[in-house]
Fold this sequence. Notes:
single chain, 6 helices, alpha+beta, 3-stranded antiparallel beta sheet
Amino acid sequence: xxxxxxxxxxxxxxxxxxxxxxxxxxxxxxxxxxxxxxxxxxxxxxxxxxxxxxxxxxxxxxxxxxxxxxxxxxxxxxxxxxxxxxxxxxxxxxxxxxxxxxxxxxxxxxxxxxxxxxxxxxxxxxxxxxxxxxxxxxxxxxxxxxxxxxxxxxxxxxxxxxxxxxxxx
Length: 169
């Protein structure tokens, strides 16, 4: 199997977007279809169109983050070095940050909005139903407290059993 960058147009930048200054979120947001799919990972824009069918997680995973920042989704999975190498072969341009509204082409009442606000994800649920914050790595609720109480109760029961067993002898 040859690499996507050598046998396809995956790493080829479309002429309208070949500016060395990079692509904005607005530019990336225009590429959300399976046949034309861009993502942003660590402020770098990637054309993953040719990789969608090969993605081990399936095309649905890729389409969920199409045209937007996929950094958190990419890092949460824990991709291999090989996956990171493949990703670099699909690189298009750096992400051009737009901090506030800017006038375009001399300012004839055309403006470009700033970057979208970061999406906040609700805390994930653990198997015990408690909320888990992946940012801090801490569970909230009774999950950890309940586990600690069970361990302490088990240790107390073992100590009591051992003490009573030694007194019977």
